[in-house]
Amino acid sequence: LTTAGVRVGDAVGAGVIAELEGQGDPLSHAILLGVAHLGLGEPAARGAEAAARLTERAVGVPQEFAGVGRSRAVGAWRTCADLYDEVALFAEFDYPRGERHTIALFVDQPRGGAVKHIGLLGAMHELDPGGPFDPHALETIDIPRAGALMRDALEVSHGPGAATSHDYRVLIAWARARSMQHRERAS
Questions:
Q1: Chain centre distance of CA 71
Q2: Is the pLDDT of residue 185 over 50?
Q3: Which of 3, 65, 76, 79 is the residue whose CA sits 20 to 30 A from 94?
Q4: How many other C-beta atoms are found inside a 10 Å radius of the C-beta of residue 64?
């Protein structure tokens, strides 16, 4: 903690966000969008607020980073067939500037719903057509429900908000699960 009682990481993060906003350039804007999308708690909120202020000042984002934070879930599935005591959760995302990608979580039920394996995969149709993870062989679940299931499994494994994880796969899965739940609130 700092002498003011603020966690050092939060203080440094606030300083970085303020510095990026102060730079006021397109690359800083893109980085702030990334902080808002992947960050948790106060840093995410500060990043979003700073990015919004740059948008108000007509600071654009470099074209190659225009899709930061804009992936959206287009489908979600689960299965427990032939997985012993595991459940496999899949959520596929469309990204405006790239290929579709899928988050896959293998959740170990006897361990209280902890994530046993996590994967970042290509599009669902690229997975072994006719195999056990062919989307036609899986149970379709609604996107907000899948986001809640993913969030719960990540929290069991990595704590609230996955804030202690240094694993980029966990951070991406957490951000994607959060975006799937935001979709529920927006509708």
A1: 9
A2: no
A3: 79
A4: 9
The CA-based angle 183-161-96, given to 5 degrees, is 40
Structure tokens at 132: 């056990």
Q: Cα separation of 57 and 165, whole Å?
A: 34
Can you tell me the distance from the alpha carbon of 78 to that of 124, in angstroms, rounded to the nearest whole number? 12
For the chain, first and last CA: distance in Å? 40
The pair of structure tokens assigned to 59 is 């600071």
- Best CA proximity match to 48, nearest among 58, 61, 33: 33
Quote the CA–CA distance of 165 and 155 in Å, as a whole number: 11
The structure's pTM equals 0.72
Q: How many angstroms separate the CA atoms of 89 and 58, rounded?
A: 40
CA 55 to chain centre: 23
Q: Are 35 and 47 in contact (CB under 8 A)?
A: yes
Confidence (pLDDT) at 93: 92
